[in-house]
Amino acid sequence: MGFGAAAAGADPHPTQSTEYQAVAATLASTEAERDGLEEDLDEANGELTTAEDRITELEAAATTAGDLAARETQVAEREAAVQTRETDVQTREDAVAAQEAAAAAPASSTDPRFGTCKEARANGYGTYVKGVDPEYDWYRDADGDGRVCEP
Ligand SMILES: [Ca+2]
C-alpha cells in the first residue's frame, strides 16, 4: 500500500483492506484479552489486599495474645510477690504479737539469780525475806533469821 494508491481512485481506503481488518480484529481481540487480564489482575490484587489485611489482623491478634500471655505471667509473678509479702507480714505480725504477749505478761517478779548473796549484793540486790521474796529460796540463810542477802 502506498500513498499513491488513493490517487489512483480505484483502490479501496487502506482501512478497508482485508489485511488491515485482520490486524484490527487481532488488535481488538488482544485489547479485550488485555482488559480481561487487567480485570483479573485487579481482582487478584483485591484478594491480595484482603489477604494482607487478614494477615495484619492475625498478627495483631497474635501480638495481643502474646501481650496477654506476658501480662498473665507478670500478674502471676506479682501474685507470688504479694503472697511472699503477706507471708512476711504474717511473720512480722506473729513476732509483734509475741512481743506484745511478752510485754503484757506480768513482769518478772524476781531479780536476776546469782550464785551467792555476795554477788547479788554487789549488783544491788537483796535483802530477801522468807515467805515474801521468791529469791529467798535461792540463797542460804546462814543465820536463820528469815532474811538472806541482808547487809
Ligand atoms: Ca539471814
TrEMBL record:
Keywords attached to this entry: Coiled coil
Gene3D superfamilies per record: 1.20.5.340
Residue stretches making up the Excalibur calcium-binding domain: 113-150
InterPro entries, sorted: Excalibur_Ca-bd_domain
Annotated organism of origin: Miniimonas arenae
Low complexity bias (residue ranges): 96-107
Region (Disordered): 95-115
Stretches assigned to coiled coil: 20-61
Full protein name: Excalibur calcium-binding domain-containing protein
Keyword Coiled coil in record: yes
